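Minutes, project check-in

Agenda point 3 was the complex the collaborators sent over. CS summarized: two entities, 339 residues total, and the question is how they sit relative to each other. Sequences were read into the notes so everyone works from the same version.
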Amino acid sequence: MNKEFLNVIVADSDDNTLIFFKNILKELKISVKVQCFSNGKNLMEYLNNDDAVVPEIVFINYAIPGKTSMECLEDITSNSKFKNMVTAIFSEPIPENEIEDIFVKGAHIFMKKQDCFDKLKKVLTEVITINWQYHTSGLNKDNLILKV
Amino acid sequence: MYVKFDFNALCKKVLDEKLKEHGLKYRLLNFGEVEFYEPLTQEQHNLFKKNLEDYGIEIIESQKTALVQKIKDAIVELVFSDEIIPVKASIYISEKLNHSYGYLSNLFSEVAYTSIENFIILQKIEHAKALIIRNKQSLTEIAHKLNYSSVAHLSTQFKNTTGITPSQFQKIIGRRRRVQSMVINPKMQYE
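CS then shared the predicted structure for the full assembly.
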């Protein structure tokens, strides 16, 4: 399948994190179009809109305000419109059993939040590259579980 | 009368005119490379390609992409084959596609944004996941089937690729299925 770029959405209430993500995603070899949201409610309102382009991947902060990340995840997994979308949750360190629950609820990727630019870049490069392979090589997205 | 052609200028001019004709937003780079400001739809791509054929101009990029697709297909065949193929992956791929491995390897990395080696690992782990989900074979059997020297080797590569162990993967998928069946049949949770 031919693809020119990935559509990516990042949702976090912290502006600095959003800028961090944007700057890094711009630097990657794989072309990415980024859109940002500052709370869960706005994110879901946008995604549920019929005119919205469903992105290939959405990054949601585990502790996002407005609507919790787990409520967003439930809406996403219960709507077949999002069956080709990859959901990544990022967070400060949390216990292993909580991470497992996030996967069980349907997230594909769990990402430890990195405060250092270089570390975040490394992790995001890995996530975007893997996503590129899933979206261009017909891999089964239901089996995508990645913890970075 | 004799005329002298400047092929480079001529081709560039034709390309320039055709791109304009098709209403595409672009920038001409050197060595016959065109950069589009907006991605072409499949329809635009096909129309443009067909139109250029009349001038003997061929779009190479799609050939590159086609070759990379062939490499991917060969890898999937190699990894998902029921029998263990007794040659090294590099030899298998280069013989199958009739190009040197060095050439294919560079081309693959350029187009697919990952190396052939990493793509093989990714496919092997995908295959392992599918077999784990089917739940018919032990991890030892799966490791053997996928040509790993030991379960430990498979587990290490699984963890390096996904960040979790095969048993964690199995557990998550199992719990997901139970959650899904409860959503479909809410009575089940009381049974």
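Noted in discussion: The interface with chain B takes residues 2, 4-5, 29-30, 78, 100, 103-106, 110, 129-130, 132-133, 136-137, 139-140, 143, 145-148 of chain A (CB under 8 Å).
Follow-up: revisit at the next meeting once the mutant set is ready.
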